[in-house]
């Protein structure tokens, strides 16, 4: 086993994001949802994710925007978020170890829970 280091650079963020979304795209459960939503806009999506995670984890403020609205009407439930979180955790643990790597998993878990609750709320209160 190789020595894993912590997430400390934009190159680390890009590695994490690229490998995570490669797993997502191949996943039979959540991959089709991403493919339908993102279609042929993967380079744009990945760039946005680089900036998002760089802002969150490295405190280099390169992302501005609101991440929730594009997810608001997706046909996803708790099981989709569990799978997303499993793939994210698996990717982080495969590549990195350290305080920021743990922070990445913590932030992803909180974000998944919040998005799930908000999507459920909007779905249950649609008029």
Automatic annotation (TrEMBL):
Signal peptide location: none
CDD domains: TrHb3_P
Keywords: Heme, Iron, Metal-binding, Transport
Keyword Transferase appears in the UniProt entry: no
Annotated InterPro entries: Globin-like_sf, Globin/Proto, Hemoglobin_trunc
A GO term for molecular function: metal ion binding
Gene3D superfamilies listed in its UniProt record: Globins (1.10.490.10)
Keyword Transcription: no
Pfam families: Bac_globin
Residues the record lists as binding heme: 117
Taxonomic superkingdom: Bacteria
Protein name: Globin
Lineage of the organism: Bacteria, Pseudomonadati, Bacteroidota, Flavobacteriia, Flavobacteriales
């Amino acid at each position: 086993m190789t020595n894993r280091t912590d997430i400390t650079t934009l190159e680390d963020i890009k590695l994490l994001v690229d490998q995570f979304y490669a797993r997502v795209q191949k996943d039979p459960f959540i991959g089709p949802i991403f493919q339908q939503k993102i279609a042929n806009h993967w380079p744009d999506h990945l760039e946005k994710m680089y900036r998002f995670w760089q802002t969150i984890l490295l405190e280099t403020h390169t992302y501005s925007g609101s991440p929730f609205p594009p997810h608001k009407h997706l046909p996803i439930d708790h099981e989709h978020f569990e799978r997303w979180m499993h793939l994210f955790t698996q990717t982080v643990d495969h590549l990195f170890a350290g305080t920021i790597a743990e922070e990445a998993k913590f932030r992803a878990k909180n974000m998944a829970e919040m998005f799930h609750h908000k999507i459920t709320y909007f779905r249950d209160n649609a008029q």
